[in-house]
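Running this now, will post back.
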Amino acid sequence: MELRAWMRLPSGRHLDLINPDPSAWDHQDLSIRLSRTYRWGGESCWPLPLSVAQHSLLVLELRRQANPRRLGDVEELFELLHDAEEGFLGFDCISPLKAALGAPFQEVANRLTSAIMQRYRLPDWNVEDYRLHKAADRRAAASEAVHCVGWSRQEVSEVLGIQADIADLDPLAQRYGDTPWAPWSADVAARRFHDELIRLCASLDIA
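Update: finished.
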């Protein structure tokens, strides 16, 4: 019997996590799912945990700030969707745990990533863009660990093993005018992620 793992999405559509169809979800489904999927195992030093949707927007904003020129729409879409498969998996799996879970888990995650890349017509990362992305992603993680979760700066380096500068100013607070580093509610995170996704899809003529 062929294995199936069905998920019901907010729109009422169905997604098979093992054999994902790139047309199975709409933009709102992805936005809502990412707003309800939490970083850091749901741990937070704030009343709310930090969503993957907010993290994705933070990485995008850090890339914008670090780039000497305006990012292209494809580059921005790469950043926005870099953890998109986690919205369907339902959790943000850290790299050491991924290694412990082994090949079957990685295969499911890879299939979801492939479906997302196909759905949004993204090519493979090129070497330089991926290097710049990872720098922004590590800086986001280090900053979140301190400002959103409560790790000390020393622990970020010595315990978590994240070697990256920690941002003091919250780029998202600068853009949206919120309390710096405060995790957003799921509704706010979904709306802001969806707005960026719709803008980029419209610009790139992605249905």
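Residues 27-37+44-203 form a domain with the Hypothetical protein af1432 fold (CATH 1.10.3210.10). More later if anyone needs it.
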